[in-house]
Amino acid sequence: MPVYYYGTVPVLAWIINHFLYGGVHYAWVAAEFHPAATNPKSSNPYMIYADLYLPWLMRDRHDHAVKDIRRSLAGAVTNVANRGRIDAVTAARLRRICMEASMEFFYPVVYRVDLTRIDQSRRVVAGSGLEGSREVLVPDLREDEFDLLFADNRRDESFGQLVGRDWSAAQPMDGRDVLGFLEDRSAA
Amino acid sequence: MNTEREFRILDREQISRILEPANQEQFEAWDRVVSGMHTMLKLRSRYYPRPFVDEAFGREQIERGLSVMRGTELGAVAEQNVRRVHEVVAGADRGCRACWDAVDDIIDLMLDEDAAMQAYPGPPPVLTYTTPRQRFAPA
Q1: Residue A30 near chain B (CB below 8 Å)
Q2: Using an 8 Å Cβ cutoff, are A152 and A110 in contact?
Q3: Does A161 touch chain B (CB under 8 A)?
Q4: What ipTM was reported for this prediction?
Q5: Which of A29, A93, A120, B75 has the fewest CB atoms within 10 Å, counting from its CB?
Q6: DSSP string covering B68-96, please?
Q7: Is the CB of A41 less than 8 angstroms away from the CB of B127?
Q8: Mean pLDDT for chain B?
Q9: Which of these, B23, B34, B91, B94, lies nearest to B62 by C-alpha position?
Q10: Residues B70, B72, B78, CA angle at the centre, nearest 5°?
């Protein structure tokens, strides 16, 4: 019997993890999609979804939630570079992308993870999880270990090109192609 | 607890100085310290989602940034801010409710500073949005 946990991220996070970090995702997941009784807003996937959806819809670059996520993603790039997983030039380009990427890349998507498939040793309890919030961090989630939900964005052409694409029938894109693609759509 | 008032963000004159090309190293160090504090705070935030890095990374970023800034005018501001963040984080970990509030107050301030730096030399953006906290506050 699966035990599903859920996490919400902007699609930019999925894109970076998928194309630049070898398909390894750093994912916070909560015990329900809307765990209102146990989790604060900061670890409630439904609330995070709502926080991202409105600025994405309104293309509001000044929204605090978006600015906050930009800084988080840029910090993660520094961390990945410090560990030698990407080179310094790629890191500099990626940091800039995180701070300036078009609002279309803040469309929220949801990871659904069957926690029974994740070994206990790979689950980290931190943050409000230590205070009773039902959330865990899986820092090395592989793509065969989660379903990507709400991936039905028909508004943004870029979403279809990078995420909702039938890759079996398409020319594959590598990290460099994707960096250029994202840079072309930065500060837009 | 007056942490929100005690945590200082850069004013316009300081932003102008730190963004000068000659001060690139100071700017990068400041950004490192802010990034590290942001990580530590977000692990305790009730309103902003969890970071994509761990606390050890946040602490390391702070130390690396401060090691460059110590002895400068902005270094003193950065060190004061780091002390406040450590105080707030320790309080939040003890379950202090005012500290939980202060965590999100400080994140809001940091994001305002980010907005002002990105807008410079133009004026800080006139913000029409609500913060995530305001958006979900009980009526």
Answers
A1: no
A2: no
A3: no
A4: 0.90
A5: A120
A6: HHTTSHHHHHHHHHHHHHHHHHHHHHTT-
A7: no
A8: 89
A9: B34
A10: 60
Between the CA of residue A160 and those of A58, A156, A163, B35, B135, what are the distances in Å?
19, 7, 6, 32, 30
- Contact by Cβ (8 Å): A57, A33: no
Backbone angles phi, psi at A51, to 5 degrees: -65, -30
Nearest alpha carbon to residue B26 among B117, B102, B98, B93: B117
Task: Tell me the residue type at A166.
Answer: D
- B132/A65 CB distance under 8 A: yes
Q: Are the Cβ atoms of B47 and A42 closer than 8 angstroms?
A: yes
Asked if the peptide bond before residue B121 counts as cis, ω within 30 degrees of 0, the response is yes
Helix (H) or strand (E) holding A112: strand A108-114
Q: How confident is the prediction along chain A (188 residues), in pLDDT tens digits per residue?
A: 999 999 999 999 999 999 999 999 999 999 999 999 999 999 999 999 999 999 999 999 888 899 999 999 999 999 999 999 999 999 999 999 999 999 999 999 999 999 999 999 999 987 655 677 899 999 999 999 999 998 888 889 888 888 877 666 667 788 889 999 999 988 65
**Kind of pairing, strands A108-114 and A146-149?**
antiparallel
A137-168 residues labelled b (16+ CB within 10 A) or e (exposed): bbeebeeebbebbeeebeebebbeebbeeeee
pTM of the model: 0.91
| Closest CA of chain A from B96, distance in Å | 12
Taken in order A150, A154, A158, A163, the sign of the CA dihedral is positive
